[in-house]
Design brief:
This protein is an alpha+beta fold. It contains 6 helices and 8 strands.
Length: 195
């Protein structure tokens, strides 16, 4: 499930290449904002490296380290979803996750050591903790295989449907056909990467 650095390096390189694009410079406020996330894609002939960065709130509904059993389960479910569901796909849905990694701003959670009293105590102090501890982000990196990926003009992402708190998704890509950027709004799934 967890992936080593090579694909991450490709995505970071793509990010550096894409950073000067006018759309990303104009649309990216450069700060952690609920409702906003970034998706970066490096496309090869039959594969893609994909990187998602989002405030934890967009994907989980909270930003503090998981404390309750329900929150730990939400995090585990998100990790499982990210390990098996391609963040982008082609029309026939044939993309597969070959490798994935999941990183959060928190240290590893210990979900089985929580007691009900402990859960209740944390719940009562949750709002105070959110104010004191700032923002948390989640990063998901995937290596995908998709037959004939470079031949497709339109890609789709399940992110906007899966996560209702996600209002804007800034998408950047680089591949054999060039590079580009777009913004998806709530309810949008498809974006065009071809000319």
């Amino acid at each position: 499930m967890h992936r080593n650095a090579p694909s991450r390096i490709i995505v970071v390189m793509a990010s550096a290449i894409l950073a000067p694009l006018p759309a990303s410079a104009a649309d990216n406020p450069g700060a952690h904002q609920h409702g906003h996330a970034e998706l970066q894609i490096a496309i090869d002939t039959n594969s893609a490296d994909v990187f998602l960065r989002s405030p934890a709130y967009n994907l989980l509904g909270f930003e503090h380290q998981p404390r309750t059993k329900q929150q730990h389960q939400q995090l585990a479910d998100l990790e499982q979803w990210a390990a098996s569901t391609p963040l982008i796909n082609i029309e026939d849905g044939s993309c597969n996750v070959e490798e994935a990694s999941f990183h959060s701003s928190w240290p590893k959670a210990s979900s089985h050591q929580e007691s009900h009293a402990h859960d209740r105590e944390h719940h009562e102090h949750e709002d105070q903790d959110n104010r004191e501890h700032g923002h948390s982000d989640i990063e998901i990196t995937q290596s995908l295989t998709c037959d004939g990926l470079a031949d497709h003009q339109t890609l789709a992402t399940p992110l906007m449907d899966r996560f209702p708190a996600l209002e804007h998704l800034d998408v950047q890509w680089i591949g054999p056909g060039g590079q580009g950027a777009t913004r998806l709004e709530a309810g949008e799934q498809q974006f065009r990467i071809g000319r």
